[in-house]
Amino acid sequence: MKILVADAFPKERLADLERLGVRVEHKPDVSAKDLPQAARDASILVVRSKQVTADVFEAAESLSLVVRAGAGVNTIDVAAASKRGVFVANCPGQNSIAVAELAIGLVLALDRRIPDQVAELRAGRWDKKSFSEARGVFGRTLGVAGCGAIGRETIRRAHALGMHVVAWSRSLDDAGAKALAVERAPDLLSLARQVDFLSLHLPLSKETRGIAGRAVLEALRPGAALVNTARAELVDQDALLELARSGRIRVGTDVFAGEPEKGKAEFDSALAKLPGVYGTHHVGASTEQAQDAIARETIRIVEVFVRSGHVPNCVNVARKTPARARLVVRHYDKVGVLANVLGLIREAGINVEAVQNTIFEQAQAASCAIELDETPPPALVERIRARSDEVLFVDAFDL
Q1: What's the longest Cα–Cα distance across the chain?
Q2: CA pair distance 380, 344, nearest whole angstrom
């Protein structure tokens, strides 16, 4: 089995992958364009930020698993993977502290204008008078949109600074807000209206793309700041540029529209050039601690898959199949028994959606639950029951 690691990965963790008894090929500089060819004979593909397009799944017939060494899977064509029966997994929560640290760092930088102070000193200018006008963050209000692992870590750090926290998430109820010691906003627009800093910690999906639109941005108080360490696509970039350029809001962002694919490249961003915008280079998850935690979780996913075929953190297995009925067959644990049962089901023109076969102690008998896309007719059940030398019991019921 070959594993292709197509992004940067700690060397010592590459050795841990090799100890699983697999062949590891490390190509951190392979481009997204060349990835289909590079992955052609790989069984497992590990990526961080590299785009995995439908072409990869078409070219790599042996590919069984793609692991995103990070949170989210927006760089992977999950639909294409699902069509080819390829598992997709990620490493949620492993970079939470690192991203939360940067989010709070951007809040403090915006309040104390730290980048501007550094720039003035490097230019040989001293301006204590202007830079003494910071308000401070103690007692001010931080809005947190998204209460997953990163949002919760951000809330924890904001509390440590004495900030008042208001939060919104589609899954956040009153009990959850009480547990987090935050005030709950009913929606994102309401949240934006009452905060000094709005920090985004939402995953990118069809529902969240553009969720921080013009109405949300305009709801921020004059002089308030947007902090985005999640995804650029969450925000209406045209509205953001307009409002930041006018000076109505300030921005601290780790993510930009049109980011370069490579780690080093020329990058011309109108937003990044504005004086009220502090940007970092999409490095929220890029601490040594976070990367090691993500690498360890990647290894765990690969090891479980290699040893058992199970995929932890899988994002594209159907939560509910189209099955309408379940056939339960208790049978002798002998060669060909299930093959014969499945053959009879095939002859009846019924599709199997899921199979789970449980072996009992001493390996003499087993129970198999077969989910079907339609109710098996009585004649089929009787044909299976008639195989008394193989079948102990059979029953069917609708789901």
Answers
A1: 93
A2: 7
Task: For tokens 């951007």, name the residue.
Answer: 106
Q: Which stretches of 102-159 are assigned E, i.e. beta strand?
A: 141-145
Among candidate residues 48, 157, 231, 331, the one labeled active-site is 231
Q: Known catalytic residue: 153? A: no
SS3 110: helix
Instruction: Give the C-alpha separation, 75 to 86, whole Å.
Output: 15
In the chain, the amino acid numbered 336 is G
**Token reading at 183:** 């005030």
Pairing relation of β-strands 225-228 and 141-145? unpaired
Residue 45 near residue 67, CB atoms below 8 Å: yes
Contacts of 150 (CB under 8 A, 6+ apart): 71, 95, 96, 99, 100, 103, 201, 229, 230
Which two three-digit tokens encode residue 17?
A: 């992958």
- Positive or negative: CA dihedral 180, 185, 186, 191: negative
**Cβ proximity of 250 and 276 under 8 Å:** yes
Three-class SS of residue 392? strand
Residue 262: is its pLDDT beyond 80?
A: no
How big is the chain, counted in residues?
399
Among the options 233, 242, 259, 390, which is catalytic?
A: 259
Range list of β-strands (E), the chain: 2-5, 23-26, 44-47, 65-68, 87-90, 141-145, 164-168, 183-184, 197-200, 225-228, 250-253, 277-279, 325-332, 352-359, 365-372, 391-398
* Annotation says 201 is catalytic: no
Looking at residue 141, its amino acid is T
Residue 261: pLDDT above 90? no
The mean pLDDT of 269-276, rounded to a whole number, is: 96
> Which pLDDT value is given to residue 179?
97
pLDDT-derived band at 278, boundaries 50, 70, 90 = very high
Q: In the block, which residue shows the tokens 């008078």?
A: 129
Distance between CA 281 and CA 286 in Å, rounded? 10
Q: What is the rounded average pLDDT of the residues 342-369?
A: 96
Residue with tokens 């896309």: 373
Which is catalytic among the residues 13, 282, 326, 331? 282
Q: Is 282 a catalytic residue?
A: yes
Side-chain half-sphere exposure of 344, counting CA atoms within 13 A? 20
